[in-house]
Amino acid sequence: MNCNQWLPAQGSHCGQPGRPYAVGPRCPEHTPAAQAGRPEPLPGPGYTPQRLLTPQYRLAQAATAGTARTRTTSPRRTTS
């Protein structure tokens, strides 16, 4: 995967080997952080949806599962 950063002075793309970013493949010289003058962020652990939910949230969901009630707007019928 080659860097597709446009270099106006050269009139072509960079073309150096790079890795994928949201803006397209970039070499270390043209990453979004490098262009903003910041260091590259350290790699994180990677979060799955299961890790984002707290245990308290899971317990609350399990405790209320199947007990949700819906309100009705129709009047109650009484039997005589």
- Order of neighbouring strands in the sheet with most strands: 1-2
What's the pLDDT, averaged over the residues?
Answer: 80
Query: From the structure provided, what is the oligomeric state, counting identical versus distinct chains?
Result: single chain
Strand % is 5-15%
Number of strands: 2
Number of helices: 3
What is the 3D form? elongated
SSE string: EEHHH
Report the span from N to C terminus.
Answer: 79 Å
Q: What is the helix content?
A: 10-25%
Largest sheet report: 2 strands, antiparallel
| Broad structural category | mainly alpha
List unreliable stretches of 5+ residues.
Answer: none
What report would you give on this structure?
The protein is mostly helical. It has a domain at 6-35. It is built from three helices and two strands, in the order E-E-H-H-H. A two-stranded antiparallel sheet has the order 1-2. The chain is elongated, with a radius of gyration of 27 Å.
